[in-house]
Design a protein that fits this description.
Elements lengths: L10 H5 L4 H13 L3 H4 L5 E6 L4 H7 L9 E4 L16 E6 H7 L3 H19 L4 H14 L2
Parallel strand pairs: 1-3
Antiparallel strand pairs: 2-3
Helix pairs in contact: 2-6
Amino acid sequence: MGQVVVIPLPIWVARGEMDRDRFETLVIRAVSELPSEFQSRLANVDVVVEDWPTARQLGQAGVGSRTRLLGLYQGVPQTRRSQGYDMVLPDKITIFRKPIERLCRSPEEVQRRIGEVVRHEIAHHFGTDEKTLRRIEGRRRRKGE
């Protein structure tokens, strides 16, 4: 008889989560992969990773369950800024790690989802409303992109 080899389950399968540093690296990569014309217009925007949204963030987003909010843009969209808009705190894009991990079945799916969430929240920064984004994302899914 041959030797039996036991291969341990990867950490992802065993616990359903990714190392925080790896997750943050994927967020940085998603931002760096944006087209240069978008990157150059992201001055004064902080992108941060949090495990879960707070009750206040859920209220701002109009979302009732903390597992459903994957990202949040907080700031003044570029389309609503006046000429006197300067010397202000940075806009903030928060990517929520735990809800994304709960939604995904593999590290590759986490990476794809992070990219989607980063692009979605940056679109809000540039003034695209939620209804328009949902319509665009729905079309993209139907095309299989």
